[in-house]
Design brief:
alpha+beta; three-stranded antiparallel sheet; 2 helices
């Protein structure tokens, strides 16, 4: 997260930051409260709130992926044009934006190397993944 945003959040009295907190349940037809386990001590707490923003950080959690899915030095998944020169890219067409080095596996959002790292972009890329699947299946 950008340091200027961190400072703004820290100075805003209407924002409460709860690091290392797990949301256990979201309550209400429209959100009314959330049941939490807060901090390292995992203290139970119910918070009355109409909204939640979850920030999971900028470290990609890609360790679970198989070695066939190429990642950059920081662990972000390589996709799209960056794969065109990869020895792992063996398809005849050029890689599409969400293609990974493993045919039929697509990556969207912040986990992609070189992504914009904004919620709106991640949502849009998630929607685009449907088209990527159709393109992949068309070649089958």
């Amino acid at each position: 997260m950008s340091s200027y945003l961190v400072r703004r959040i820290e100075r805003t009295s209407k924002i409460e930051v709860l690091p290392k907190t797990e949301i256990r349940r979201m309550n209400g037809g429209h959100l009314k409260s959330v049941d939490l386990l807060v901090g390292g001590a995992r203290q139970p707490r119910t918070l009355e709130t109409p909204a939640v923003f979850s920030f999971i950080g900028v470290t990609p959690r890609t360790d679970w992926l198989p070695a066939q899915i190429e990642r950059d030095a920081k662990g972000f998944v390589r996709t799209g044009a960056a794969l065109a020169q990869s020895p792992q890219w063996r398809r005849t067409r050029i890689p599409l934006l969400l293609d990974t080095s493993q045919p039929g596996v697509f990556a969207a959002g912040d986990v992609r190397s070189g992504s914009v790292r904004r919620v709106a972009s991640a949502v849009g890329e998630g929607a685009m993944s449907v088209q990527s699947v159709h393109e992949y299946l068309k070649d089958k």
